Amino acid sequence: MNDDSQILIARLLTHQTLRRDDKLVKRVLSDELFRAEVDKRLLESGLKLIDNVYADHVTLALHRTVEPKIFGARDIWQNNNFGLTRDGVALLVVLWAQIILPKRERQETHQHADDDQNDLFEKDKPMPRAEDTSIGISYTALLSDFGDKLGKKTRMDMNLGALSRMGFIERRGDVILEGPLLDLLMDTDVLKERIINGALADVFKRAPVAVADPAVMDAAAVADTMLDTSSADPTN
Known about the structure:
Elements: H1 3-15, E1 17-19, H2 23-30, H3 32-44, E2 47-50, E3 57-62, H4 67-71, H5 74-77, H6 86-108, H7 130-133, E4 137-138, H8 139-146, H9 152-166, E5 169-172, E6 175-178, H10 188-199, H11 213-226
Antiparallel strand pairs: 1-3, 2-3, 4-6, 5-6
Helix pairs in contact: 1-3, 2-3, 6-9, 6-11, 10-11
């Protein structure tokens, strides 16, 4: 293993996430030979590199083939993602739907969070970074809209604290913002379809307060199969 691949893997294991503009991260995302070497070394340890162009960070996760050997039979571990309870996983999916989906729409249309009108030449601009397009949501509004369905204030505060420690979200006063893992550890291509047309369809069709309890709680069932539980966090 050359020094660069060793250092990159060690830093990812130590820090859990690294920014895409990090020197070695940029190299692993652009240098095919270096990426192949890193992937080979990670696979030998049952790990894989997780990245997507919409996120500002990269991370490591367990390879799917070794997950059952680590977590046990799927019907045992899939409902215990990161140790979160069912209402915690449902809250995670609600936050993902309200923060990540709008952010990706702005990225795909090359709009920044503070843009107030479309630019005729916006399609020719580079896709904006997550930090330039991601808008947080109000804790007060979240509690008002979903508190009764997700355990009320005490449970929601407990789950938000857990999600913050895990790196899914960040808290700044009343605002809940995207954390480095929120757009990395969910299978967006599948989850987006099931959320918009299934578990949380009502969120996008009418006021969130009108969402039926079963629809919100079904978000946890959706996440059971979409959330990558295997982020390599040495603190867990």
